Amino acid sequence: MIFKLHVRGAMLVAAAITGLVALAVPARADQCDDIAKQLAGGIDGLKVNFKAANIIYLTHPAAKELSLGCSAQGQTYSNELYAKGDRKPTPKFFDLVASAAAITFTLPKDDTTTGATRCLKRMGLLRGDKVTMRYKRLNMECTRTKTDAAITITRPKDE
């Protein structure tokens, strides 16, 4: 009888310790999900649609397409922001891209506004429909078609 009490007590203590350890270790969400929640909370009208593989699709009235990509093994970038709008981007589109880039890459909004505006406005007769540039340790690639203009902003993993 005494032996059973000790075993039962030891099992109870072990279960209590296991429960405390489980509570002490915080559940870590994916970094990409955290950034998507920050974007949804920080930008009016932005909604998180769904996640497929390492890409979270977002919606906003100022953009035709909007997505946040997070790095997987073997990729050279840490995060990627992709936005597509009209061929002649509106000020609302510039503001959306700048705000999203500022939150995603933790930079001042003024810097991301300058970089995105420069990239999107450089496309034209002299430079063509694809412009690649680097601004404030961000790689920006702007492309346009007959109906759309798109910008992809990434930061290399080593920076």
UniProtKB/TrEMBL annotation:
Signal peptide span: 1-29
Keywords of this entry: Signal
Keyword Signal part of the UniProt annotation: yes
Record-given protein name: DUF3617 family protein
